């Protein structure tokens, strides 16, 4: 086989042991390099598979107890100075597998977008909820995050049997649940929810950037970066800024609410 043909062959999902053995006996340096890359890729795939199995511990525990629809819930956007807090709820299929799924903050934008498309296409059900800056001011950011999470659950087309939640206890809630710190690193369902919430919110803030072009929302997603703070000083506060967050709260007290 020619080198290009071997390259295409090694990109296939399944290759027989006989073919691999034959290729390993090939003395050409080009073939050896291709096989080295192939072996590294297989090691990476095996690592992702094992990590996914580890992060399915809580889901498997629920399945073993007779649960059918297990919902992962996460939110994003507690810290920004502008924009809503966004929560996502997702019910994955029991046999689902999303290679490389992890806490959304640990993934590249490209990987998040790729996983977002796969998860939203393959999940049993998912829902997204925004709680805007006015409600954040009304309820405080912690309560607003919980409200967003619960509303996301209520928007699902399928009612879950059990909820796995990232660091937010649901007290006196009608569906049984388990909340865990760093849940997006420990549960595939919560990790999937974190990806959905982050991709949705990041894209939403990019849309806001076209309406409010002076705050660099397309790059900072509403967080208090240098460019964002410069925009606040020069152009004032917009309708999506959180008025109970500093330095916005102090700006309003000083009469600095001269924005858009």
UniProtKB/TrEMBL annotation:
SUPFAM superfamilies with a match to the protein in the record: Ribonuclease H-like
Principal cellular location given in the protein's record: cytoplasm
Record's keyword annotation contains Cytoplasm: yes
Catalytic reactions on record: Endonucleolytic cleavage to 5'-phosphomonoester
CDD domains recorded: RNase_HII_bacteria_HII_like (cd07182)
Domain RNase H type-2: 68-257
Keyword Nuclease attributed: yes
PROSITE patterns referenced in this protein's UniProt entry, alphabetically: RNASE_H_2
Named cofactor requirement(s): Mg(2+); Mn(2+)
Assigned keywords, A-Z: Cytoplasm, Endonuclease, Hydrolase, Manganese, Metal-binding, Nuclease
BP GO annotations: DNA replication, removal of RNA primer; mismatch repair
EC assignment: 3.1.26.4
Cellular-component GO terms for this entry: cytoplasm; ribonuclease H2 complex
A Pfam family it matches: RNase_HII
Entry's localization field: Cytoplasm
Entry note: cofactor: Manganese or magnesium. Binds 1 divalent metal ion per monomer in the absence of substrate. May bind a second metal ion after substrate binding.
Role description: Endonuclease that specifically degrades the RNA of RNA-DNA hybrids.
Similarity remark: Belongs to the RNase HII family.
The protein's name: Ribonuclease HII
Taxonomic placement: Bacteria, Bacillati, Bacillota, Bacilli, Bacillales
Gene: rnhB
């Amino acid at each position: 086989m020619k080198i290009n043909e071997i390259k295409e062959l090694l990109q296939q999902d399944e290759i027989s042991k006989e073919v691999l053995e034959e290729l390993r006996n090939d003395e050409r340096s080009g073939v050896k390099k291709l096989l080295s890359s192939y072996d590294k890729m297989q090691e990476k795939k095996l690592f992702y598979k094992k990590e996914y199995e580890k992060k399915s511990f809580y889901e498997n525990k629920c399945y073993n107890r007779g649960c059918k629809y297990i919902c992962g819930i996460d939110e994003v956007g507690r810290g920004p100075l502008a924009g809503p807090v966004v929560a996502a709820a997702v019910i994955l299929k029991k046999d689902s597998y999303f290679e490389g799924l992890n806490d959304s903050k640990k993934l590249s934008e490209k990987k998040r977008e790729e996983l977002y498309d796969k998860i939203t296409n393959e999940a049993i059900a998912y829902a997204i909820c925004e709680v805007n800056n006015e409600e954040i001011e009304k309820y405080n950011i912690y309560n607003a995050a919980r409200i967003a999470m619960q509303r996301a659950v209520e928007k699902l087309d399928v009612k879950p049997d059990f909820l796995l939640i990232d660091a937010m206890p649901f007290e006196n809630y009608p569906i049984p649940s388990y909340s865990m710190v760093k849940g997006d690193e420990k549960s595939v369902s919560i990790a999937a929810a974190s990806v959905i919430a982050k991709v949705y919110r990041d894209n939403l803030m990019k849309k806001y950037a076209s309406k409010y072009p002076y705050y660099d929302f397309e790059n900072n997603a509403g967080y208090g970066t240098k460019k964002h703070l410069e925009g606040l000083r020069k152009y004032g506060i917009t309708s999506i800024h959180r008025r109970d967050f500093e330095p916005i709260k102090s700006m309003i007290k000083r009469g600095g609410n001269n924005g858009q």
